[in-house]
Design goal:
By secondary structure, the chain is α+β, with helices and mostly antiparallel strands. The protein has a single domain (2-224), classed as Jelly Rolls. Helices cover 21% and strands 26% of the residues. It contains six helices and 14 strands. The chain has helices at residues 2-15, 26-37, 58-61, 66-69, 72-82, 139-144; strands at residues 17-20, 46-48, 53-56, 87-96, 104-107, 112-114, 126-129, 132-135, 146-151, 162-164, 187-188, 196-199, 205-207, 216-224. The protein starts with a helix and ends in a 15-residue tail after the last strand. The mean pLDDT is 93.
Length: 239
């Protein structure tokens, strides 16, 4: 495990991402799916269309899922890769149905969710999504954050596995329209059921349409070890 952790740390530092299989076993993933299926889907944070079912503020909206997701194994892995002091700052559940044509173009995750809008040097622009304030923070905050994507289904290039530009996380703000494909490469992050993908928010990433009639369910959790300045607070913080 120690040697594997070193390899995963090296991947995250150099490429901006890594894939770790077998973090959740079949019984654990089935328990998570059961809790999601039993959740009250009438809440405004639940979004359901023909192409996508999503639950924003997922860990707060489905609190029974917390001990099933933030397991001792996952917490130990986080500490081995990043150290102590990290806490959840955002969570979303995505369910991409079998016939989904939904796709996401290349982008970086440049905004964070906060509890209010205020004058804060280095923060901006501001938006409001689903009655929640979102803002682009200083780069030093984004550079310390990381995201864990827990896969509840086998995911490959045919059902929307993330496509990424390795090492793009180290290039600051990187506009997708300026990608030089003669100099950059693309990697497809295939993840087996029960596995996780860890990525830096500044990593350029995209997701394609489903072409193989296979479902793709993913829990997206963002972590930080930073207390925000200027009276701002993370709106979804879970210690």
């Amino acid at each position: 495990m120690k040697e594997s952790s070193i390899n995963y740390r090296q991947d995250i530092a150099a490429k901006g991402f890594t894939v770790i299989p077998g973090v959740f076993d079949a019984e654990e993933t089935n328990q998570i799916i059961q809790q999601i299926n039993e959740a009250d889907q009438t809440n405004p944070t639940f979004r359901k269309t023909a192409d996508l079912f999503a639950i924003r503020q997922f860990l707060k909206e489905v609190p029974a899922i917390l001990p099933l997701v933030l397991t001792e194994r996952l917490n130990t892995l986080i500490q081995s890769l990043f150290g102590t002091g990290y806490f959840v700052v955002k969570s979303i559940y995505f369910d991409k149905p079998e016939q989904s044509n939904w796709f996401v173009a290349y982008h970086q995750d440049l905004t964070i969710s906060v509890d209010r809008k205020t004058e804060a040097p280095g923060f901006g622009p501001w938006t409001i999504k689903h009655n929640q304030f979102a803002v682009q923070p200083p780069l030093k905050i984004l550079e310390r954050n990381f995201t864990i994507r827990i896969h509840l289904d086998d995911t490959d290039k045919n059902n929307g596995a993330l496509k990424v530009v390795p090492a793009s996380h180290a290039k600051g703000i990187y506009r997708p329209e300026t990608i030089d494909w003669s100099a950059e490469t693309e990697a497809i992050c295939e993840v087996p059921k029960g596995g996780i993908m860890i990525m830096r928010p500044l990593l350029l990433h995209a997701s394609g349409r489903t072409t193989n009639q296979a479902r793709r369910r993913v829990i997206h959790i963002e972590f930080s070890n930073t207390l925000l300045p200027h009276g701002l607070n993370w709106s979804e913080a879970i210690a």
